[in-house]
Every structure is written in C-alpha cells, then in structure tokens.
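User: quick one, sequence for these tokens?
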C-alpha cells in the first residue's frame, strides 16, 4: 500500500498569537475555528511531531473530541484534520487518541458526514492509526466497530474516490494485521466482521 502518513496542512496559517488557555467551548465559533486551524498547522510537521505532544500535554485532546461529538458542524473539518495528524504520530500519541474516545465519533462521521473533506480526514485518522499501530490497534478498531463504516464507505457511489481508496486501504490493513498474527489467522475475527458487513461485493 502506498504510504498515507505524510500530510501537509491545507488551510492552516502561521500563528502569530499564543494559544489561549481558555476552555475551547467558551470561545466564539469563529475564534475556535481559527485556533483549530493553527493547531492543525502545528501538528502537521514531520515526525516526531513535537508540536502534537505539546498540544496533547496542554490537555487539548478531550476538548477536540467533545467538539467532534457535539460541536458546531463547521468545526468538524479542522477537528478531524487535527486528529488525523495526531493519529500519524508516535505510538504513545496514538494511544492517547484512542483512550480519549476519538474513534467512535470519527467512525460515525465517516459513515454520515455530508462534507467530503470531513470524511477524508476521518478516513486518514483510521488509516494512519492502522499503519502505525499494527495488529493491536487493528484489533481495537475492529472492536470499536470500524469494519462496518469502512465497508459502507466503499460501497457508496456518492463518496469521493480518495475516501473510497482510503477505506479500502484501511480494510486491507485490518485483514493483513489479522493474517500476521497466528491467533488472528486461526480465529479470523476480522475477516468474519468484514464478511458480515458485506465486504465481499464491495471489494
């Protein structure tokens, strides 16, 4: 599979002001959007992504996940872009992303988002985690219900080609991770989940 980790910040602008320590949900929507854009710019630098660690250490992750769950729709694109960059960071950064509960809303948005870039960012958040996390992360994402929205995305004619390609990549990474594990190959839980979700016709 072609690497999908290296992503550049698309709409970010160099930050001139220091990051506020105020609660994210206390900021006006326009201010939140601007600051999320700056955060995405910070976390899109090459590994080891020290700015991502700074953002995590500042306690921003719970606020980002909360915004994804119940924030204004206009914030979905910068939030998911920020999360996709964290997902391609170090294993400890990825672990914090999973433990913060980021993937259930990411998976929901992959299925339901009407904004094409939001769906793309969600797909990158999944693929980046699978590329960096191996069999353990693959098993966790399957447990969280990743297979069904990936398969559904593959079968949607309304989805952009890049989102469908990322969904195919993610499902193949999940199945490859199962094959690399002796226990996984025996139990074939990932394969069973894919078949139950209707992956065979989509593939």
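Assistant:
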């Amino acid at each position: 599979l072609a690497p999908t980790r290296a992503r550049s910040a698309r709409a970010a602008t160099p930050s001139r002001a220091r990051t506020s320590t105020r609660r994210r949900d206390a900021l006006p929507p326009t201010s939140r959007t601007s600051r999320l854009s700056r955060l995405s710019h910070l976390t899109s630098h090459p590994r080891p992504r020290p700015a991502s660690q700074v953002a995590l250490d500042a306690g921003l992750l719970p606020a980002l996940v909360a915004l994804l769950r119940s924030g204004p729709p206009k914030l979905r694109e910068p939030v998911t872009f920020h999360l996709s960059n964290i997902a391609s960071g170090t294993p400890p950064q990825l672990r914090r992303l999973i433990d913060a509960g980021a993937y259930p809303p990411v998976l929901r948005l992959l299925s339901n988002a009407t904004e094409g870039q939001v769906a793309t960012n969600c797909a990158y958040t999944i693929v980046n985690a699978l590329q960096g996390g191996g069999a353990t992360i693959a098993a966790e994402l399957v447990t969280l219900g990743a297979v069904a929205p990936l398969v559904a995305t593959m079968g949607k004619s309304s989805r952009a080609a890049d989102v469908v390609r990322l969904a195919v990549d993610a499902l193949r990474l999940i199945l490859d991770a199962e094959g690399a594990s002796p226990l996984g190959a025996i139990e074939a839980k990932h394969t069973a989940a894919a078949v139950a979700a209707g992956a065979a016709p989509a593939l």
